[in-house]
Design brief:
494 residues; mainly alpha; 17 helices; 80% helix
């Protein structure tokens, strides 16, 4: 028998076998990644149920609380996967943060916001949208809250799967409304509150987009289009960073610190003004030092906006954790109170162990499933750089303050994504304006064909239409799903 190991054909066969093995490993890795995420999520949901069993004790309706805790954990995972992308997407899309860095910052600040400043009295979930006394019995109220939790979580899960950033607030609102209608009819719904929420579908993204476009106009006209860009940046960047610091100071004072101290709008604005002036004074020498040796071109300006953008992403995450954790655990807190006291007509506070489920669920959801939506918001709607992403972050803070002043319920998702659209559409308008100006100056210059001009649009229309459609149907879809789930639960339990 001859040894054919030195035969070139044998080596080729070996190479092919190794290549197949490498491909198999790659395929297994791709399959294993989503399976790992699903496995970790399942373990977290089970642990949430065990925590509910441990903290709630041996009451008669412990089983209901355990099931509700599992649903709350599932909802928190979906909020992390979908909602947090709005805070981190612009910074990642502008390359100011890596994906890993963004996830690390978001996990820390979302959890801190939820545990330190979250947990304010959550009466809106039950009393603002429906009238609990119309539910008849505590059991019916509990089933309605469970239906709302499950329907909202399923809807956000579906939206994340198709790549559409939707409002988790609106998902929960739709779920509570649908269950309320199924349980007690249309008269149980506070239609005044619902009309305000419906108005916010339009107001939130339009206001966010307009403010973001305005600040991008300031940056372009006062810095980018100036002959000496570095000298202009030394003057304007401290002012812009001061405005951002003041806006976030007022935002956090007004919305993020309600549990620690109650602050009214005038006081919050004064706090913001003081922080803005101090930050402006501090940033003047900092920007002057950072700008030394920079070339007089647009690329050099990105350095000056990097750190403010990272800080803004962290502050947005803190405020989001403080406010939106209630979306995950508000109905769960209502179920816990009803199970303990039997009272479902008064306001209720969120127990600390329930807040922990919400905070950790958001963090796990972001870590396991968040990158998909972060990439969507950060780079697939329109191209972002640090200046444009800065405008998005600043717009998010200012829009919430303006909406609070006007008494309008708004969605952080709609504001942030609307701001991204605003930046993109402003860039399209500005590019078209400059083309027309150049055409007047140089009439003989070759013109783009209409098809080429459409191809060069700076906002992807397919993403725009998908997101708008998802926004419009979020409340009715969650409501319909919740009503069906309530009917099934009521039939099974009745």
């Amino acid at each position: 028998m001859t040894d054919n190991k030195g035969d070139p054909r044998h080596l080729e066969t070996l190479d092919r076998d190794l290549a197949r093995f490498s491909n198999l490993e790659s395929a297994t890795s791709m399959v294993a990644k989503p399976m790992v995420g699903l496995g970790v999520s399942f373990v977290f949901v089970v642990l949430a149920g065990l925590a509910a069993m441990l903290f709630f004790g041996e009451a008669n309706n412990t089983f209901l609380v355990v099931v509700a805790a599992c649903l709350g954990a599932y909802m928190a995972l979906n909020i992390g996967a979908n909602d947090v992308a709005n805070n981190m997407g612009p910074a990642v899309g502008a390359n100011a943060l890596s994906m890993g860095g963004a996830i690390a910052i978001a996990v820390i600040f979302e959890s801190a916001g939820a545990l330190i400043a979250g947990g304010d009295v959550v009466s809106t979930i039950a009393k603002g949208i429906i009238e609990p006394e119309r539910m008849g019995t505590a059991d019916v109220f509990v089933w309605a809250m469970m239906s709302a939790l499950l329907s909202a979580a399923l809807w956000v899960n579906l939206a994340t799967w198709v790549g559409a950033p939707v409002s988790t607030t609106h998902s929960v609102v739709g779920g509570v409304m649908g269950a309320g209608i199924a349980a007690a009819g249309f008269s149980a719904v506070s239609w005044g509150t619902m009309s305000g929420i419906a108005a916010s579908w339009v107001i939130s993204p339009v206001l966010g987009g307009a403010i973001a476009a305005f600040f991008l106009f300031i940056i372009k006209s006062r810095i980018i289009y100036q002959d000496d860009k570095i000298a202009a940046a030394r003057k304007w960047v401290p002012i812009l960073v001061g405005i951002m610091a003041g806006a976030f100071g007022a935002y956090l004072a007004l919305k993020g610190l309600k549990k620690i101290i109650k602050i009214d709008m005038p006081t919050a604005l004064l706090i913001g003004l003081a922080i803005a002036i101090i930050t402006w004074a501090v940033m003047i020498p900092v920007i002057k030092k950072q700008s030394e040796g920079l070339e007089n071109r647009n690329k050099s300006l990105k350095v000056l906006f990097g750190i403010p953008l990272v800080v803004s992403a962290a502050l947005l995450s803190f405020a989001h954790g403080a406010n939106d954790v209630a979306n995950a655990v508000g109905p769960l807190a209502a179920i816990v109170q009803v199970s303990q006291s039997g009272d479902f007509t008064t306001s209720f506070s969120i127990p600390f162990w329930v807040m922990v489920i919400g905070a950790f669920g958001i963090s796990f959801g972001l870590f396991l499933f968040g990158p998909k939506l972060i990439r969507m918001v950060g780079g697939q709607i329109t191209k972002l750089n640090p200046m444009r992403a800065y405008c998005v972050a600043l717009s998010a803070a200012i829009t919430v303050i303006v909406a609070s002043w006007l008494g309008l319920p708004v969605s952080s998702t709609h504001i942030a994504v609307g701001a991204v659209f605003g930046v993109g559409f402003f860039r399209e308008w500005d590019a078209e304006r400059r083309i027309k100006k150049a055409r007047l100056a140089m009439p003989d210059r070759p013109q783009y064909a209409p098809e080429e001009r459409r191809r060069r649009k700076l906002v992807r229309r397919s993403h725009f239409m998908t997101i708008i459609a998802a926004w419009v149907i979020t409340v009715p879809a969650a409501a319909l799903l919740s009503g069906v789930i309530f009917f099934l639960i009521n039939t099974a339990m009745g």
